[in-house]
Design brief:
alpha+beta; Archaeosine Trna-guanine Transglycosylase, Chain: A, domain 4; four-stranded antiparallel sheet; 27% helix
Length: 105
């Protein structure tokens, strides 16, 4: 299961948000697996990789539904605080609904 704040459900449903960055102590997902988002339904994980916050790009911000890299990093800092630089980060790309092919990046 992937949990999202309610403000992100509409961007996921519209296709504006096709990625999320998660700070987890270990890998929890694999590309190809279907995951459930409460309030939305199933998504298909299309890519899953470790990423350092310093290596995130403007493209990451766009795929994550943010207007800029600065806005994405501010959201991540608000959610994770110091853990952002202490615990591994993972870039998770997904398609919604789960049966559809991922749109081009």
């Amino acid at each position: 299961m992937l949990l999202f704040k309610k403000k992100f459900l509409e961007p996921i449903a519209s296709g504006a948000k096709r990625q999320t960055i998660r700070v987890w102590p270990r890998r929890r997902l694999r590309a190809g697996q279907a995951e459930f988002i409460p309030g939305l339904g199933r998504v298909r994980v299309t890519a899953f990789e470790a990423v350092r916050p310093a290596d995130l790009t403007e493209d990451d911000a766009r795929l994550d539904g943010f207007e800029s890299l600065a806005a994405l990093l501010a959201e991540l800092r608000a959610l994770y605080g110091d853990r952002l630089n202490e615990v591994p980060c993972f870039r998770i790309r997904f398609s919604y609904p789960a049966g559809e092919a991922a749109p081009p990046a």
